[in-house]
Amino acid sequence: MTDMRSLADIQEEFEFLEKDDxxxxxxxxxxxxxxMPDVLKTPATLVRGCxxxxxxxxxxxxxxxxxxxxxSTSAITKGIIALVLTIVQDxxxxxxxxxxxxxxxxPFELQNHLTSNRTxxxxxxxxxIRETAGRYTG
Length: 138
What we know:
Layout: H1 7-15, H2 19-31, E1 54-60, E2 66-72, H3 75-88, H4 93-98, H5 101-105, H6 116-119, H7 121-135
Antiparallel strand pairs: 1-2
């Protein structure tokens, strides 16, 4: 991600905005995602259960932390991905497993920005990130 604001900073801005502006903030966050090369957008990196196409690809940094590339065909979904990655990007696998991502995302009221069909994919993406982190622990 090129926009390295903390989740707390994003939440502070989010709380001051009206609903339409909150929606735009989430979309803008998606625009800040690091580009994911098209060659990595394969069936193996596709997150299942998302209405929009979502891909995620983990990279293990030299220090053992995980860096995720991700993309989506939906602007709002891409923004949600950016929020999720703000929580886990470049963290150690054990740190990723220790964080309650659902709780961290709760203040953003994502159900108000996504249809019920789209909200189903977010838990799948979180599960995939957690599964990836689990493969690199112990």
